[in-house]
Amino acid sequence: MPSTLPPLTSLTAAGCTAVITTAAGTWPLSLAVGLAAAVLAVRAGVGRRVLAAAAAVLLPLGLSLLMLHGLFFPEGRTVLAVWGPARVTAEGLTFALESGTRTGACVMVLLLFSFTVSAPDLVAALAGRGLPPQFGFVLASALTLLPAMAGRLDNIRAAQEARGLVLRGGMLSRLVGVRLQMVPLVLGLIEDSGSRAQALEARGFGGPGPRTSYREVADPPAGRRFRTALLLFAAAAVALRLAASWPVAGPS
Amino acid sequence: MSQQSLTLPATGPGSGAGSAKARRIRRVLELAGAAAIAGTYVFLVLTQPADIANGPASFSALVALGGFFLGAVLLIAAALPVLPTSTLVLMPVALVLNVVLGQLMGSTGLPFYFDAIGTVLIAVLAGPAAGAATGALSSIVWSFFNPTVLPFAAGAALIGFLAGLAARSGLFRRFYLAPVAGFVTGILAGVVSAPIAAFVFGGTAGLGTGALVSAFRAMGDTLLAAITKQALVSDPMDKAIVFAIAAMLVYALPRRTTVQFPFVRRFRVLAGTAPETPEA
Question: What is the dihedral of CA A7, A13, A17, A20, to 10 degrees?
């Protein structure tokens, strides 16, 4: 599952691909990028997880866009059908397709990155590039805390149910149930973080000065050149787009 | 840059003469971040494409992404290096709470998103700078699972910052004032986030909010106007509830836990919390 690319290279590749796709803004390219990301995800062995996460994000957005622009698009001129106040226009459907595929491509590429990158490697690489170590700590800590949370919430629910909590009924009893689960969870997490802060402080976390990383992340020069080329390409795409559609008349 | 030692309380001004320059740099970064966000918003509203029939505005999307991302990064850079460890370890907790409590509240079937409970909680306990950094960082970490929240980092930072300001000015001392502060925060955050939804995504992610936008579009509004109006309908209500939940959680925590935070002691954020050592 771990990516063969160094973390910074895959981060740059994902970010630049998303930027270039956004700058280009044509749906065939977006569709191709999204499909390519899906194929890469399947080949990396994370296809199921990437596609599930992407579907959870993209399906509501896609349906919402289709309803919004498919039925109501006052700027549309080519009317295909009229039902009462709703007008199906070709321009509206194109707009929904364009924005949907553009977002879809970016989501697929970024999910491919985040599901294949190794979080410790990424944090070490970022710290090596001069980012504050605090950033790396927050990133790594949150990424490891999040999966552990589902189990903790299950334990709290089981404990409260053993004490007679019933998670059914109307809105009010549900809200009471939510409160009975929330308070222990928040209290436990804040208590934990207090002791974690003391442990970190005792190990010099807040102190000034340089840090030594125990984790060496390989960064071959070929990857560095590839990154530079990608960044230049993305910058050129953004510059072209900005120059091509700079608002001429200013405020309209 | 200006790291406090182990024993000093964290966010107090005047924690050493040597940090005066660092404080100035930090202030400049904060102002630059806020200016980047405000400038991007004004620019987007002034130059919004009059005719979107030619396809989604890639130009506006790029400007929105770049400007808001720059603002969020500047705010993080200003706040992160000076936060004390006790606040820093709360940030992952805030993110986890944003996600988990959001899902928990979602299980009650209420039509709101509740994705800022953790951010507001941290802002109340640790102050505006911590709140802003938490909001922005939360969006970055959350984007590992849902990349569409990344462009909203600036709006999340604004929510955290305003929640911290509300706490500092004592709005969490009275339980009924917290939702009012949330309502005002929701108005500002909704207006700032609307261009992202309009230009980057071309709409909103939820079906309920999408229906609302459709209704405004049917009346002939532009996309940005329709989404701004939708945000003005949903966001203040959502943030009012989020602030009320955060207040409920803060008061449900034991006093022993809440008074550990220097911000809570110094500004007497919570009702009945007398400062242990009287400060100026």
Answer: 130
CB contact (8 A) between residue B3 and residue A197: no
Q: Could you state, in order of their start, the residue ranges of all structural domains in chain A?
A: 7-117, 132-202
Report percent pLDDT > 70 for chain B.
82
Question: Do A247 and B59 lie within an 8 Å CB cutoff?
Answer: yes
Which chain B residues have a beta carbon less than 8 Å from that of A110? Answer: 143, 147, 150
CA dihedral B251, B256, B257, B262 (to 10 degrees): 100
Residues 6 or more apart from B79 whose CB is under 8 A from it? B26, B30, B129, B130, B132, B133
pLDDT < 70 stretches in chain A: 1-4, 167, 169, 247-252
Q: What is the pLDDT of residues A30-46, one digit of tens each?
A: 999 999 999 999 998 88
Question: How many beta carbons lie within 10 A of that of residue A230, not counting itself?
Answer: 18
Instruction: Please answer yes or no on whether B141 and A132 come within 8 Å at the CB atom.
Output: no
Cα–Cα distance between A93 and A155 in angstroms, integer?
A: 47
pLDDT band at B51 (very low <50, low <70, confident <90, very high): low
Question: Distance (Å, rounded) from C-alpha B197 to C-alpha B263?
Answer: 34
Stated as kind and residue range, the H or E segment containing B15 is none
User: pLDDT tens, A223-236?
Assistant: 889 999 999 999 99
- What pLDDT was estimated at residue B10? 47
Closest-CA residue of B relative to A107 is B147
Residue B82's CB is within 10 A of a number of other CB atoms, namely 22
Closest residue by Cα to residue B247 from B180, B186, B193, B150: B180
